[in-house]
Amino acid sequence: MKPTFPIEEFRSLQTPFYYYDMELLESTLQKVSSLLSAHDDWHMHYAIKANSNPRLLRIISSMGMGADCVSGGEVEAAVEAGFQPQSIVFAGVGKADWEITTALHHNIGCFNVESEPELLIINELAGIQGKKAPVALRVNPDVGAHTHSNITTGLAENKFGISKEQLSDIMQKALSLPNIVFRGLHFHIGSQILDMADFMMLCNRINELSSTLLRQGLPVGDINVGGGLGVEYEHPDCFPYANFEGYFDTFKRHLHLPPGSHLHFELGRSLVAPCGSLITRVLYVKEGIHKRFAIVDGSMTELIRPALYQAFHRIQNISSSAPVTRYDVVGPVCESSDVFGKAVDLPQCHRGDFIALRTAGAYGETMSSQYNLRPLPKTYFSTDFKFV
Ligand SMILES: *Cc1c(COP(=O)(O)O)cnc(C)c1O
Predict the structure, then answer these.
(1) How far is the CA of 188 from the centre of ligand 1 (A)?
(2) Which fold has domain 22-273?
């Protein structure tokens, strides 16, 4: 079997950097494409915010997937990477005028609109360009996903979407505006969802809502169920793929797609998280009073998820097979939260050892910053190395 990391090749590289396993990315995309191919009316729009590395975007667009964007910059990156403009959808509670104008200019497939004032502005800006803007209304379905509170988006208390109570009025408004074409409804309940019951609840909410609206003479059109499928952060080598079968099967079994309507998905994390690792080197091993620190050259500026969400990433010493010792693995940034993991058992660490933070392909590189004037992380791809 091929080793997970080309350690010998890493030795000449400056750390920290992101390393992407392109074979894993491609097999993941193939798996998803083949599951989707059973349904002519199902479409995938990759959520670019999970990872917008141009090399990854090119591969994803070449698989024929669409893109889900949340900013004008992402719309431009999607077009640049070869995504068909008609397969680009654009969500976000606060789309600025220039972002709407940019998206109109590219003739994107759909604006996922999150409020009535936004709908009016899109109508106005589309009028200026002499265009009709395709629009889906993002509904806040008030479904709580069993995930971290910072990444649930489908509760009434969250800022996202339009409440069910206000929906039919805004739908009627959308149908009446001259520069708007109403396409359907959009939902997205959160991220890192592992319990398929959450998606089943979403299906039930959508079914109820579409029959209520239909009774009012308002057919819902296309349905976009967003993203949110979670990945196994604990055991990256045992579970390199998210539960795509279970996920798609849940929608197949529980969602009553109105005849003639299309079903859209916006997966981000589950497509790219497993293929990425942040590779860092041990700088110092410091003996504390009650603990031992492995101080590495990577930090929250390359991978902020542990500091921001107390997220777990599997940490591995990939260059040692020495007996195991317990460490707090910490970065050099001047913040107490710059900790990758506490009480982590690792083969005994020495200066220069490579430490891999696994399953870091989503919300890793895209969230990197230059805080402390640190350089942005470099990226390397498995297909650029010759494995020995
Ligand atoms: C972030 C986001 C997604 C992707 O979520 P994942 O959890 O990465 O699958 C999909 N749709 C919208 C609207 C989003 O904001």
Answers:
(1) 7
(2) TIM Barrel (3.20.20)
